[in-house]
Structures are given as structure tokens and as C-alpha cells.
Amino acid sequence: MSEFYALVPAAGSGSRMGGDLPKQYLDLAGFPLIHHALTTLCACPHIGAVFVVLAPDDEHFKRYDWSHCAGKLETLYCGGATRAESVANGLLASELEPDDWVLVHDAARPCLTQAHLDKLIAELRDDAVGGILAVPVADTLKRADAQQRIECTESREKLWQAQTPQMFRAGLLARGLQQCRSVTDEASAIEALGLQPKLVAGDSTNFKVTYPQDIGLAELLLQKRK
Fold first, then answer.
1. Could you give the CA distance from residue 223 to residue 226 in angstroms, rounded to a whole number?
2. Fewer Cβ atoms within 10 A, N terminus or C terminus of the chain?
3. Is the pLDDT of residue 60 over 80?
4. Are 109 and 164 within 8 A, CB to CB?
């Protein structure tokens, strides 16, 4: 019987946020940004352990209190130069069984809920490939030229915006990342193997904090839930 595990790559700097502090440690509602995602993952009864992949020289993580995640949270100081490298290193260091399910989640998606996790696991636990949380693209899409003028309008039909967690068997994902290290999400590595991950409908609240203004939006959403 396979188990469910979570892996959170958190070795990046988040340069688009500006400042010297890595994005995952910026304050959000009185806690570091990464606290919210890790807390939700550790509270999920389906998940046996949560592996957070940090940069080898990370000095920030241990400064915070993680006692509420005791028994589930495991730190791996093996992060790489890219997300794909961090996930690949984390899979190797975690020593999961090839058939174990691993849910890879962005540290910068703090508004993940138990309902998101329940839906993802329920829809994918018997799937042959695995899949991802995603939302259909709602906005009109414009392609720009080199001068940032509209070159054309792209059809949004059948387009989805990828989110996380992205859930795949550990062995399959490791194989995909070994063959394709340039991907920006795990589903792309699975696609490179010729497989078709399933899209599981999420919602827009599970957004990624990318720019400074996103912090305020995430804080409002978390306060509303309380």
C-alpha cells in the first residue's frame, strides 16, 4: 500500500520580491511565508511526512518554532540552483519508495487548504499517472512583441494555469527529472516522458506570492478564514 508524502522546495531567493531576505521567510500574518504551507501540509491526515528542501547554507529556517509540525516535518539541506534540481535532490535524500505518492508544493503558496489536499488526493490516488491542481485561464491573453506592444490575442480555450501541489509517484517523478532538469514544474517532467498528467480543478485562492503586493492579498485571505 503506497503512502502519501509532501515535498516543499525552498532553496530559492525569490528575487522578484526584492530585498535580502529569501521570499519564503518574509513576514505574513506574523509568521514566515513558508510557515503557512508547511502547517497545512503537516496537518493533513493523509500525509505521512513533509520534507522541506533548503539551501545547504540556509541559516533562517532553524530560527523559527516548528514544534507544531513535530513528528511530520523533516528538513533536507540539499537544495539546488533550480527548482527541478531541489526536487530531484529532495527525492533522493528522502529515500521514498518508488510507488509512494509525493505532493510537491510551492513554499510561496500560503493559502493552501485541507479541502485542496483532500480533492487532489481523492481524484489522483488511483490514477495511473498523477496530476496537478490547476484553474482554467479566465483572463484574455495577449502576446507581446519586443517593444511590449500587442502582437496578437491568444485563445484561452483549453488553457489552464498550473498550481501546486503536483502529485506523482516518487519513482516516476525522479525518472522524469533525471531526463529533464530544465522544467519549471513537475508536470513538465512527467510530460517529457510522454505521459499526460490529470488536471484537478482548484481555485484562485491557492495563488503564488510572487510580487510584494501579493503579501497583502494573502494576509487578507488568511485573516478572513480565521
1. 5
2. N
3. yes
4. yes
- Please state the pTM of the whole predicted model: 0.95
Using DSSP bridges, classify how beta strands 4-10 and 101-104 pair: parallel, antiparallel or unpaired. parallel
Q: Is the pLDDT of residue 2 over 70?
A: no
Contact 51, 91 (CB under 8 A): no
The whole-number pLDDT of residue 116 equals: 98
d(CA 132, CA 116): 11
CA distance 38 to 134: 20
Residue 198, φ and ψ in degrees, nearest 5: -85, 145
Length of the chain: 226
- At 163, is the secondary structure helix, strand, or coil? strand
Distances (CA, A) of 8 to 52, 139, 140, 142: 5, 29, 31, 32
Dist. CA 82–CA 137, nearest whole Å: 26
Do 103 and 5 touch, CB atoms closer than 8 A? yes
Residue 56's contacts (CB-CB under 8 Å, 6 or more residues apart) are: 77, 78, 79
pLDDT digits (tens, 9 = 90+) for 145-196: 999 999 999 999 999 999 999 999 999 999 999 999 889 999 999 999 999 9
3-state SS, residue 214: helix
Assigned C-alpha cell, 5: 508524502
Domains of the chain listed by start with CATH number? 4-225 (3.90.550.10)
Of 158, 161, 159, 162, the closest CA to residue 186 belongs to: 162
Residue in the block written with cell 493559502: 111
